[in-house]
Specification:
The complex is a heterodimer of chains A (295) and B (354). Chain A folds into 2 domains: 48 residues; 221 residues, MetI-like fold (Orthogonal Bundle). In chain A, 76% of the residues lie in helices and 0% in strands. Chain A is built from 12 helices and no strands. In chain A, helix 9 packs antiparallel against helix 12. Chain A is flat and about 90 Å long. The C terminus of chain A is likely disordered. Chain B has 2 domains: 229 residues, Rossmann fold, CATH 3.40.50; 110 residues, OB fold (Dihydrolipoamide Acetyltransferase, E2P) (Beta Barrel). Chain B is built from 8 helices and 20 strands. In chain B, the strands form 5 sheets. Chain B has a 6-stranded mixed sheet, sandwiched between helices. In chain B, strands 15-19-16-17-18 form a 5-stranded antiparallel sheet, with no helix packed on it. In chain B, strands 2-1-4-5 form a 4-stranded antiparallel sheet, covered by helices on one side. In chain B, helix 2 crosses helix 3, helix 2 runs parallel beside helix 4 and helix 3 crosses helix 4. The longest helix of chain B is centred in the middle third of the chain and has 18 residues. The radius of gyration of chain B is 25 Å and the shape is elongated. The chains are: A mainly alpha (295), B alpha+beta (354). Chains A and B meet through helix 8 and helix 9 of A and helix 2 of B.
C-alpha cells in the first residue's frame, strides 16, 4: 500500500496547490479593483490630511477641528440632521413596510415599484423638484393659502425643515427595503401560534411581530443614518446655507480656501465615525444578513 | 393538570376555494377526551378542517361546537384550544421558558404561579430545567416537546396537532408516537391529530377519520378501519392490500378451483375481495378446518429484511401480494404455490364498476 501511496500523495498535494492558486487568480481582478478604487483613495485621503500647504507633515488640521467651535457645530448639525432623518424614516417607513407586508405579493410588488420609483430619478432633479414645491411661492404654499389653510407663506425650505423633507424622501427606500424583507420573512405560523395561545391581534403585533422585525429595522435605520452622514446636495440646495453638514463644510474648504488638508481631515474623521457606528451596529444585529453579505 | 375535556361536534361544514371544494358538507362528532386522527392524503382537506377548529380558516358554512358553544365565528385567540404546529412555531426571540409562559402571561397568571406551571409543563415533556435554553439550541425532538408543553400549559380542554412528528426522523417519530399517546392518557384532553401517515394513525388513535376529497370516507376504531374498510380508497390508503374481482352467487364465489363461502346476506353480482398480504400464508400440508386453499404460481419475489413480499398469480388470473416472515424460505419465481386464507380474513367491497 505505502509503496504506491507516496508518489500518488505528492501528485495530489500539487493538484491541491494548483487548485488553490487558480482560485486565487480568479479572485485577483476583484481584489485589484477593490484596492485601486476603494483602499487607495482612502489611504491617499488619510495621507493628505497630515500635510500643510507647503507639503510638510502636520497635525494642524486635526488640532483646528478640536479647537474651533465651528467644526464642532458642523458635526453636531450633521448628527442632528441624520438622527432626525432616520427617526422620521422609521416613523413613516415601518408602517409603510408593514402595510406592504400584509398585501398579496402582486399588490406588494406594485407598491414596491412606487417606493423605488424616486430611486431611479436623479437625486439632483428630485432635490430641485422639492425646491419648486416648497419655496415661498411654491405649489404647496400657493395651494395652502388659496384653500385658506394658512395666510402667510410658511418657510418650508432654505432651513432644517426643507432639508429633512428632501432627505427623508431620498432615504425612505433604504429603510423600507430591509424592513419589508424582514417582515416577509416572518413565518405566518408565529402569528397563528400567538393567536392560538390567546394573543389578540394587537398583542400578537407587540409581542411577536415587532420583536421579530427589529433586526430588519435596525439594519435599515443604520443604513439610512450612515448614508445621511455624508449628504451633500440636499442640505446645500434645500438648506439654503443654513444647514451646514460635514460634506458641505468639505466642499467649502476646497472651493473657497483650496485647503485640501483640512478637507481631507474632515473626511477622515467622518470615515472613522462611520466605521465606528457600523461596527457598533454589527454588534447589535448581523447586518450582513440584510445587506446581502455571505452566509 | 388533568382537566375536563370537551366534545366537538361538527355539522354541514363546507369550504371552497374558487371551484375546488376543500370540505364538502362534513359532519363529525368527536367524543370528550378522545384521541381522534384525521387521516388523508395531501389535499384531502384534513388540514383545512383542523385550521377551522383553530379558527385560522373561515368555513363557507357550517357549525362547530365545543361542548355546547358554537364557536364557528369566534376569533382564534378566544377559542382556548392548544395547538402544536407542524414546524412547532416556537418564538425565536424568546427562550424556552418564555415560550411556554407566553399563554400564561396573556392570561395574567401571577408570576410565581406561571413559573411553577411552566416548570411542571416542561417536566411533563421531560425537559425539566430547560427553561433558560434558547430555542435554536434544541434538537428537533426537544422543540417538538417544547411546542407540546406550550400547547398544554394553559390547560386547554381541546388539543390540536398538525402533523407534529413529520419533521422528525423515523426512530424519534416512533418514540414520540408512544410518548404523545401516554401524555394524552395522562392529560385526558380531547385531541385532534392530523397526519398522512397511516401507521402513525393506527398506532395512536382511539378513532380514525379517513378523509379524501373533502369528505369523511370512514370513521372508526383503527382495527375496524384496517379490517373492514368502507370502500376501496380506505382499503388502499391504510396498509397494503390486493383486490381480487369475484362474482358472488348464492352466498359463495369461486377463485380458481376453490369455492369460498361469503358472509350471510351478500348480494349476488360482481364484488371486490380485499386480501391483506400478511393474512395469506403458504401452505405445505392440508389446510386447517376454517381455511380455504388458493392455488397459483410465484410471479415475483422481493426481499425486504424483516419480511419478504411475493406476488402470486392465482389460477383464475388474479394477482395477490403475500407477505412472508423474514426467516421463511424464499420461493423462486415460477414455483407452484398453495396459499391458505382464513374465512374471516377477507373483506368484500362493492365492485369498481360503479
Amino acid at each position: 500500500m505505502t509503496d504506491i501511496a507516496a508518489p500518488n500523495a505528492e501528485g495530489l498535494r500539487r493538484d491541491a496547490a494548483a487548485e488553490r492558486f487558480s482560485l486565487f487568480a480568479l479572485c485577483l481582478p476583484a481584489v485589484l479593483l477593490v484596492l485601486v478604487t476603494m483602499v487607495a483613495p482612502v489611504a491617499w485621503l488619510f495621507y493628505l490630511s497630515f500635510l500643510d500647504d507647503a507639503g510638510a507633515t502636520t497635525l494642524e488640521h486635526y488640532r483646528r477641528m478640536v479647537e474651533q467651535p465651528s467644526y464642532f457645530r458642523t458635526f453636531r448639525t450633521t448628527f442632528e440632521v441624520s438622527v432626525l432623518t432616520t427617526a422620521i424614516c422609521v416613523a413613516f417607513g415601518y408602517p409603510l413596510a408593514y402595510f406592504m407586508a400584509q398585501l398579496p405579493r402582486r399588490a406588494a410588488n406594485i407598491c414596491m415599484i412606487a417606493v423605488m420609483l424616486p430611486f431611479w430619478t436623479s437625486l439632483l432633479v428630485r432635490t430641485y423638484a422639492w425646491l419648486v414645491l416648497l419655496q415661498r411661492r411654491g405649489l404647496i404654499n400657493t395651494w395652502g393659502m388659496e384653500l385658506g389653510l394658512w395666510d402667510q407663506p410658511i418657510a418650508l425650505v432654505h432651513n432644517l425643515t426643507g432639508t429633512l423633507i428632501g432627505m427623508v424622501h431620498i432615504m425612505l427606500p433604504f429603510l423600507v427595503l430591509p424592513v419589508y424583507g424582514s417582515m416577509r420573512a416572518i413565518d405566518r405560523d408565529y402569528l397563528r401560534a400567538a393567536a392560538n395561545l390567546g394573543a389578540s391581534p394587537t398583542q400578537a403585533f407587540w409581542r411577536v411581530f415587532l420583536p421579530l422585525s427589529v433586526p430588519g429595522l435596525l439594519a435599515g435605520a443604520t443604513m439610512v443614518f450612515i448614508l445621511c452622514l455624508g449628504f451633500y446636495v440636499t442640505p446645500a440646495v434645500l438648506g439654503g446655507g443654513k444647514v451646514s453638514m460635514v460634506a458641505n463644510r468639505i466642499a467649502t474648504d476646497i472651493e473657497m480656501f483650496f485647503n485640501w488638508g483640512a478637507a481631507s481631515a474632515l473626511g477622515v474623521v467622518l470615515f472613522a465615525v462611520t466605521l465606528l457606528l457600523l461596527w457598533g451596529a454589527s454588534k447589535l444585529v448581523r447586518l450582513d444578513k440584510f445587506l446581502g453579505g455571505g452566509a | 393538570m388533568r382537566n375536563a375535556a370537551l366534545p366537538i361536534s361538527i355539522r354541514q361544514l363546507s369550504k371552497s376555494y374558487g371551484r375546488v371544494r376543500v370540505l364538502d358538507d362534513v359532519a363529525l362528532d368527536i367524543r370528550s377526551g378522545e384521541f381522534l386522527t384525521l387521516l388523508g392524503p395531501s389535499g384531502s382537506g384534513k388540514t383545512t378542517l383542523l385550521m377551522m377548529l383553530a379558527g385560522f380558516v373561515r368555513p363557507d358554512q357550517g357549525i362547530i361546537r365545543f361542548g355546547d358553544a358554537d364557536i364557528v365565528r369566534l376569533p382564534p385567540h378566544k377559542r382556548d384550544v392548544g395547538m402544536v404546529f407542524q414546524n412547532y412555531a416556537l418564538f425565536p426571540h424568546m427562550d424556552v421558558g418564555a415560550n411556554v409562559a407566553f399563554p400564561l402571561r396573556l392570561r395574567n397568571v401571577p408570576r410565581d404561579e406561571a413559573e411553577s406551571r411552566v416548570e411542571r409543563a416542561l417536566e411533563l415533556v421531560r425537559l425539566g430545567g430547560f427553561a433558560r435554553r434558547r430555542v435554536d439550541q434544541l434538537s428537533g425532538g426537544q422543540r417538538q416537546r417544547v411546542a407540546l408543553a406550550r400547547a398544554v400549559v394553559f390547560e386547554p380542554r381541546i388539543l390540536l396537532m398538525d402533523e407534529p412528528l413529520s419533521a422528525l426522523d423515523k426512530q424519534l417519530r416512533e418514540h414520540m408516537q408512544i410518548e404523545l399517546r401516554q401524555l394524552h392518557e395522562r392529560l385526558g384532553m380531547t385531541t385532534v391529530y392530523v397526519t398522512h401517515d397511516q401507521r402513525e394513525a393506527l398506532t395512536m388513535s382511539d378513532r380514525i377519520a379517513v378523509i379524501d376529497g373533502g369528505r369523511i370516507q370512514q370513521i372508526d376504531a383503527p382495527r375496524s378501519i384496517y379490517e373492514r374498510p368502507a370502500n376501496r380508497f380506505v382499503a388502499e390508503f391504510i396498509g397494503e392490500s390486493t383486490f381480487v374481482p369475484v362474482i358472488a352467487q348464492a352466498g359463495s364465489c369461486a377463485i380458481g378451483p376453490a369455492r369460498l363461502r361469503l358472509p350471510d346476506g351478500t348480494p349476488d353480482g360482481a364484488m371486490l375481495m380485499m386480501v391483506r398480504p400478511e393474512r395469506l400464508r403458504p401452505l405445505a400440508g392440508p389446510p386447517a378446518a376454517d381455511e380455504y386453499t388458493l392455488e397459483g404460481n410465484v410471479a415475483e419475489t422481493v426481499y425486504q429484511g424483516d419480511s419478504m413480499l411475493l406476488r402470486v398469480a392465482l389460477s383464475g388470473g388474479a394477482i395477490v401480494a403475500v407477505r412472508l416472515g423474514g426467516g421463511a424460505r424464499m420461493p423462486h419465481p415460477g414455483d407452484a404455490i398453495r396459499l391458505a386464507l382464513r374465512a374471516g380474513d377477507f373483506h368484500l367491497l362493492p365492485s369498481d364498476a360503479a
